[in-house]
Design a protein that fits this description.
The structure is a homodimer. Chain A contains seven helices and nine strands; from the N terminus they run αββββαββαβαααββα. By secondary structure, the first copy, chain A, is α+β, with helices and mostly antiparallel strands. At the A-B interface, helix 1, strand 1, helix 2, strand 5 and strand 6 of A face helix 1, strand 1, helix 2, strand 5 and strand 6 of B. Strand 1 of chain A pairs antiparallel with strand 1 of chain B, so a sheet runs across the interface. Chain B binds a DNA duplex (27 and 27 nucleotides) through helix 6.
DNA sequence: CCAAAAGTGTTTGTAATACACCCATGG
DNA sequence: CCATGGGTGTATTACAAACACTTTTGG
């Protein structure tokens, strides 16, 4: 037997509920991943909100009245890093009633990918509460941010095999070794050099720049760049990235 | 150069923002998928909200103050179908400013899977505004529900290859043909009968019930059921469902 | 000429694909 | 005995995995 006791709904119920207590603050939290050729890092902020003073938290903010969530996330990212046009993907929304000490705050998690450079490390100096922490070193975060963080790491690992987003963590020009390192570090696996290179050649998404590394005291590696147009064309024809 | 102009944030800003205009109504929308041995269907509700009167919409409701979003979705599902313990997965949150005619409503989409039977078809009779529509027949929905719906269909198709959720759309006892049909219909592909069966045998997740179909005017098919424990054990050992 | 990392092919095993006939039941 | 869908095996091909030596550069 079905209950189906919702036949009495109507617009007025909605209007009155929307305008009374059926409201919540809405926020975004961004897991900003950066890669510095050796470690996957995440930008964290030392919290000053009781009872989490001193703990690190993800960077986030309330969703402003004139923004949708994507725009809020973009703004948070810009305010914290100065970067625009950064890769951002929504992951999940977290809504447990007591997740925030100041009241009901529903938050939507995003992760984003940035190439770490000196400019970005400088933000640690400009605001000592901001830190690029190694992902492998994360322990206890403020609020429910451990759960949010874990979800985003999982999503990143999933997507990395699924979509050509790894390139967003590397400089425009990179060697195949750098790329392989990235996959090994982020996914915590080991890859066979020759098989990895054969696979990438088969994917046919990289441009050989006919340039070499310089200033290395060993044989310099050839440099490549990722060709987004080539990928887009292939994708439209039914090609699926997989690595 | 980074801007990093957020160093002036503090708790009081948050408290005042949370308690003033920085609030939104929060809702869930459920894409309830049902399978009737031939068609993938979705439960839709004829809307009475201007300017969408007569258009069909997903079933949803506001998130109540004492609920998190998962609980809201479960409640919506129960109120509409009378079912508890139904598979539900959060898909994405939609937040465009003008997405709802009554004001700012941020909605989180879920999809769920139910086995269609006479009981469930009865809800169409009890509330003539509810309809189990064929997924393949969906055209224009109310609000931004086409986008939400498309996202959920995509997620379902993705998950179906990835996790053993197809069984949730079938009766407890099913034939291999029924299972194959499900995959073919939902994913809109054709599968080779022998290869499909070999693959399922290799996965080793089904229990041979030593029962046959009855009341068919041809050779009766053997019946199987899915063994969730077996799957859980294998999953823990690193096994990944893939089909 | 030495150290360090770049670059390159072949073999072997495993999984995906393609494909056609006999079987059991009800009418 | 006929119609209907159920059930089964093999050969071929493509992809994944394992593996070691030569090359280029800087110091």
């Amino acid at each position: 037997m079905t209950t189906n006791n919702k036949t009495n709904e109507n617009i007025n119920t909605w209007i009155s509920q929307i305008n009374t207590e059926f409201k919540a603050a809405v926020s975004v939290d961004c897991v900003i991943f950066g890669y510095d050729e050796n470690h996957l890092r995440v930008l964290l902020l030392e919290s000053d909100m009781p009872p989490f003073e001193g703990k690190y938290s993800l960077v986030g903010d309330l969703c402003h009245p004139h923004e949708n969530l994507d725009e809020s996330a973009k703004r948070v990212l810009f305010e914290r890093t100065g970067l625009k046009d950064v890769f951002l993907e929504q992951v999940k929304t977290f809504s447990d009633i007591d997740r925030h000490p100041l009241g009901r705050v529903i938050t939507t998690a995003y992760y984003s990918l940035v190439k770490l450079n000196e400019n970005l490390f400088r933000i640690e100096k400009e605001n000592p509460k901001l830190k690029w922490k190694k992902v492998s070193s994360i322990t206890e975060l403020a609020f429910d941010h451990n759960v949010i963080f874990d979800n985003c790491v999982k999503q990143l690992r999933y997507r990395l095999r699924d979509k050509p987003i790894g390139f967003k963590l590397l400089p425009k020009k990179f060697s195949l070794k750098q790329l392989q390192n990235l996959y090994e570090k982020v996914l915590d696996i080991e890859l066979d050099k020759r098989n990895f290179r054969r696979k990438l050649k088969a994917l046919d998404l990289l441009v050989d720049l006919n340039e070499n590394q310089s200033d290395v005291n060993h044989r310099p590696a050839k440099l490549y760049s990722f060709d987004p147009e080539k990928y887009e064309n292939k994708r439209k024809k039914g090609f699926n990235f997989e690595l």
